[in-house]
Design goal:
By secondary structure, the chain is of the alpha+beta class. The chain contains 21 helices and 22 strands. Helix 3 runs antiparallel to helix 5. The relative contact order is 0.07.
Amino acid sequence: MAEKKSDNYDSSEIQVLEGLEPVRVRPGMYIGSTGYDGLHHLIKEIADNSIDEAIAGEATKVVITLLKDGGVKVEDDGRGIPVDIHPKTKKSTLETVLTVLHAGGKFGEGGGYKVSSGLHGVGSSVVNALSTRMIAEVYRDGKIHHIEFDTGKPVAPLSVKGKTEKRGTSIIFYPDPTIFKETTTFDYSWVVHYARHQAYLTKGILIEVIDERTDKRESFYFDGGIKSYVKRLNNGKEVLSGDIFYVEKKVADSEVEIAVQYNDTFAETMKPFANNVLTPDGGTHVVGFRTALNRVINDYARKNGLLKEKEDNLTGDDIKEGLTAVILVKLPNPEFEGQTKNKLGNPEVRSYVDKVMSEYFAYYLEENPAVAKKIVGKATLAARARKAARAARDNVIRKGAFEGLNLPSKLADCSSRDRTECELFIVEGNSAAGSAKEGRDSKIQAILPLRGKVLNTERARLDKMFANAELVSLIKAMGVGIGEQFDMAGLRYHKVVFMTDADVDGAHISTLLLTFFFRYMPEVIKAGHVYLAKPPLFGLIKGTGATRKIEYIYDEAALEKRLAEKIEERRKAGTNINEDDERFKQAGYTQQQRFKGLGEMDATQLWETTMNPANRTLIRVNIDDAEKADAIFTKLMGDQADLRKNFIQSMASTVNLDDLDF
């Protein structure tokens, strides 16, 4: 029982945070983090307000400028934030919006926006609170209205700075380094990515990104809106038809916009949005879309004799194979699940999307019978493959996590039953696997050897995977199942480590494995369980016999740096350097060893350099941008050789698998 310390617990112990103080005390509650993501979220909060003006039909242009002095400027040509005195706060509306949480034109039936991505009205004021300085200018009624802030507090009252013929709003802010301790440097590529997507989703808006630090600039304007987005998502893939199904329809007080195109891959790409906010976990708009899509395709197939009378209906999994779809709904009062807005909850939206998709996609199939036949044919092939895979699945997927049933015979499993400490090393070649088995910590480390290169799953369905011995062994060892029976709860290892040679073949095998996990077990990657081991490429040896010591170097750049350092040390010590000697001898080493593969290391070396948790370097694989990752895998592992050739040629001088941003 805890010791009683004091009875002096009264009202004086309760702290009340006023104004924007809560934001500075707990910034993570408002922007997620104070690292890279949180820093860039500041831009989104301000720019989203300008995008809302465009959605409302009041703005045609948004310019995001990364300033030389570290600040960011966001300017639009919308109506301009009102500057008159707010009846409740008795301050200018501009100051109110920038200093009061939950103040904005996004609440109630009389709000300034019928449709808005900013649900809670906290964005601008939060950015102000987390900035050392904010400068706001409104171009309205022929005047330039100006106000400045210091950490959320106004420096002086709103004033008229001059005259102008422009209209709109300009916000400049400087992130506070005492809040964003990791970095206050904005990433141009992040801003470009954000701008491009908003331009796709807001048809007819021009978004410019200017980087004054490097003189880079890019502009985005897509008259086709989400049709252009679907076209980009299918870039590099063979499409079933060059035509993209598109519909835009107003239903009640909401709008439904859908674009669909099928390709010849086996994966689905679905991008659902509500008021320009990506909802990766789906929601009612996705349910309505899938319900309509499945019903329309099955009805068409039955009506036109493409499905035999005794054949079962095509399932949702059959129909979504090769589907690329963007769904955008705009509604006045979106009900997102949580501040993260990952899922839409409005029940009425399901019927809205179902109604629009059912009516117009049915028309599309009737008017395009050749395309309809291809879509149904692809889904029918998927159904046959699904049935073939199901016949083999019970013999492949391991039942139970630790009973040892159906584990692959070549798996050297670990003895621990605590999965939070267990690690699976997927090792290239029997020789390396032998050293790994001998050198490992058998309590927590399991070894699964691979023979040769695994199947390229970018171009393979589940039925082909079940016929591939290497992938079958991997699926069994993982314990999560695959396809319909995938279940993260069965994962047997906290870390899944690809341990391949530090050469081109090893990189290829790692890419094949990454392709498999990205296409068929993405949840394992997203949960942070997949790693790349980094074995050394060189060994620098000094001395012989009992005095022999080896220093491990992991890449060529590090090797050159280490040799240069040692040579300079010897020079400063007065050693005469013979430039005719090889570099490693100039640096004072007796031998340089290059490891062509893991199999060249003995068990002790492999443990010390690559497997020992105290010494090793593991690179965790993340999917920060699934769309970008999808494009990379399509280029590297798809069947369009020209795309792969161009990628390799453009990256050949600089690419390193470890540096690819998945």
